[in-house]
Amino acid sequence: MDISAWMDVALQKAEESLRAGEVPVGCLFIYNNEIIATGNNTVNETCNATRHAEINCIDQVLKFCKEKCLQYETVFRNLDVVVTVEPCIMCISALLQLQVHSIIYGCANDRFGGCVSVLEVPKFYDPKVLIQGNVKKEQAMKLLKDFYKGVNPNAPDSKVKRKKETLLTEK
Amino acid sequence: MASLKSVKTSKMETTTRSWTAKPILGSDFTEVLPLHEVYVGILKQRKDTSAAIQSISAVLPGFAHLKRCSNGKLLLAPLRSNELSRANGEEDITLGEDELKNQLKERGFDLSLFEDKFQVTKVPAKAPRTKLQAGEASKIWPVNFHPDQTIERLIDGSIFDDDCLHAIERIMSLVIEAARLEAVGDVRCTGAAAVVDPEDGRILAISAARVDQHPMWHAAMLAVDLVARLHDGGAWRLNDEDLTKRRMDEGTLDERVDSDVETENLNFKDRLRKIKRKYEEETPLCYPTSLSSLTFPVQMPLETQVGRKGRRSDGDRVEDPQQEEYGRNVEKCGPYLCTGYWVFLLMEPCPMCAMALLHSRVAMIFYGAVNQNLGVLGSRAVLHTVPGLNHRYRVWSGILERECRQMVEEINARKSLK
């Protein structure tokens, strides 16, 4: 499967996330041409702001490695990440620390993006990891806009309003 | 004379305490101000000074951060019309002396006030933000400067009173002990973390890095998940005892899936009650669990009147209403993530941990040892001042710096022995 086809799968995951009331980000971890982890954002469910799609996928890979008796270090180094939105500063750091093979993302993340948008995190690390953005970015962006138009049921009252305002000013 | 007295005691303390809390501020506050070249006109007669200032301000406004005239020299215009365009990679547009003279003449400025030849000199290109910068800048050219008291109190450390500094030191000592007992990190990030509610000083969670068990188990990441657990969430299975309890909870949750609005409200109140009970009975949550054997300091509020005032007059004006709003929301909805909490770290965090704490909306971060390798709260970057991020925390370094640094060395040495 090529990058574009993988991104379609990731976009489907993002849509599922939107329906579940979480931020619509879809993420796939591909190893040996096979999806070994897919995840979405579970911040509201876990009350933990770090539970982004990528972090959830990392946990799945660790579990996968345990079950298959594989060394996780080796698996991560041969693993490709496909995610609909530019990973945030935290997630890109996690992926770079694990030295994944490549990171492909859809739209830019103007609020938290750690590849180019807000802070260029790769410059702090060994630059071996391939990073490519803007793959099907329009679709990814549309899902985000749909989400912020709606209501995040778990955020305190004011947050919801502010998110809407931010989005309006961003446009 | 209470204020005088407190100044005196804090002075005494700085001599007895081995460390100083250093605020990590954006480069706006710490940089040596850049200089740029400007034309100055030399007044033939000093008595014309005020008339010349008035006239030049009308025809060529600018230099708001500088005195327009010093020592018979009048600031006219920068040599390069736009420093910004240069930053954008555009070509310099240099203003010629004759060109400037023509402009002045056209706008009705009386050039006979000046000596024939203009001089070129360097002056600070932007306004100073701190007393220190203003002092340095005025050695070059007199500046217009009004110190921001909050910023000055941040810089000289008087924003924390003595009790608060003692409490900070006690919590950092605990973090050091936690690291001694359990921390297994790597060269990127190591140590231990504590999350504290500043309002009552309750230690909510304490953790030590365990990258031997999980590559993401840095101290801050663990601490954030422990707090999530307090809120009836959490993603990692951090100890078996709680795990069984959580399974039971999930069982009861499943039974009430089709609840109507009324029972949902009840469940919600239930949840709040449960969280409150957890705060009172289960804190501090510890990972690894052996950390519960540490001696915890006596609980005391950290947010003194001084501290609170400081946070309120944060340069970011939006901060204040947000805080109050948050207070109301806590009563209504319960605590949200780590909003408002203070975090204590043995070592300056890596980008993953620093951003995790930003996502979690903590209010303050205190760390001891710098992390030259990958620290982004002062060493490699100053994450919380990066434009674009609506930064949510203040950062202090140097808390028990020597002790923290020694502990980092100790735990790193321990790791290489294994």
TrEMBL record, chain A:
The lineage of its organism: Eukaryota, Metazoa, Ecdysozoa, Arthropoda, Hexapoda. InterPro entries: CMP_dCMP_dom, Cytidine_deaminase-like. One of its GO terms (molecular function) is tRNA-specific adenosine-34 deaminase activity. One of its GO terms (biological process) is tRNA wobble adenosine to inosine editing. This is tRNA-specific adenosine deaminase 2. One of its GO terms (cellular component) is nucleus. PANTHER family: CYTOSINE DEAMINASE FAMILY MEMBER (PTHR11079), TRNA-SPECIFIC ADENOSINE DEAMINASE 2 (PTHR11079:SF149). The keyword Cytoplasm does not apply. It comes from the Eukaryota. It holds the Pfam family dCMP_cyt_deam_1. Residues 1-117 form the CMP/dCMP-type deaminase domain. Keywords: Hydrolase. The keyword RNA-binding does not apply.
From TrEMBL, chain B:
Belongs to the cytidine and deoxycytidylate deaminase family. ADAT3 subfamily. Residues 305-324 are annotated as: Disordered. One of its GO terms (molecular function) is tRNA-specific adenosine-34 deaminase activity. Keywords: tRNA processing. Residues 312-324 have a biased composition (Basic and acidic residues). Residues 270-396 form the CMP/dCMP-type deaminase domain. This is tRNA-specific adenosine deaminase-like protein 3. One of its GO terms (cellular component) is nucleus. GO terms for biological process: tRNA wobble adenosine to inosine editing. InterPro entries: CMP_dCMP_dom, Cytidine_deaminase-like. The keyword tRNA processing applies.
